[in-house]
Amino acid sequence: MFNHICLGGTFDHLHAGHKKFIKEAFLNGRKVTIGLVSKEIIKSKKFKHSIETYDNRKANLINFINQSVWRKDFSVIALTSIYGSTLRDSSIDAILVTKETLKNGRKINKERIILGLRPLSIVVAKYLKSSSNKVIRSERIRAGKINTLGENFASEILKLGNLRLPHKLRSKLQDPLGIAFEGDEHNMSKCALNITKYIKTHAVHFLIGVGDVACQSLTKQGVSLNLKIVDGKTQRKKIETPIESDFQVRNPPSQIRTSAVRCIKKTLKMMIDGKNLTIKVSGEEDLLALPVILLSPLETFVFYGQKDVGIILVKVTLELKKEVMELLKQFEGPTLFLQK
Predict the structure, then answer these.
(1) Would you tell me how many other CB atoms lie within 10 Å of the CB of residue 103?
(2) Alpha carbon distance 21, 78 (integer Å)
(3) Whole-model pTM?
């Protein structure tokens, strides 16, 4: 047991791996100092636009520790470099690192020796891995791939197989999943204009449209959609000027097919890499807004049209992903209907 152990991290979207790491520090030290990365040194991180604020990360961190049974004397300090308080606090006698940050622990000891301080004992913590044997990382959460327990959204939905919308959920799905911008299919320009004004007041990284009318209306207002999912129809009537596509996939009405989910997963990866793409659906695209929300990076804006309402704007969050997953689990599975 060390007298005073320190550790550092961003602790963004506090997940199971973070919690294991933090607990290990408390089990190894009588006093714990946690260096929480400030905004000055997160500029190189991927999906940095969806990193939680310093205050939110600090509050989540303290709340987690305060609810634990192993809580003891601790402090949280702002980390503006890898050194934190290690070069001025002689009471610190150990540092907890990971395999990736071991080099930083060694750098710290090198500087401490120069300053006449004793080198710290370095404790290397093991990573917590998910069921897919991948390390649970905040970057993967921000990318929209996993939740804070490390569960993979694509794997979870694909395990459900081909899905059909049950009658009991039809009224539930009439409730907008996000902000409703009112308009009808004959006059969507004002609706789309209001959306463009809204977008300009928010820092948005990815924009996805589901449905021909929504995509065309937004495009006419100058909105550059990173991904469009269309079926060439509105209210099951052919669109006069269909949108050209990069990929085609079959998805019958009132269904979500695994082939469509895999196509969405593939195009989202390409979208993240910088490509703007369009998926053309043979059948109906309406329900594909659900897997799009489930698989998209956090803070992505997803737009979809809703009859007699207008265009719905959805901001992707972990909470919404959980809600969508719960909805999908209530769909009828592949053994409950005849495939068309």
Answers:
(1) 11
(2) 18
(3) 0.91
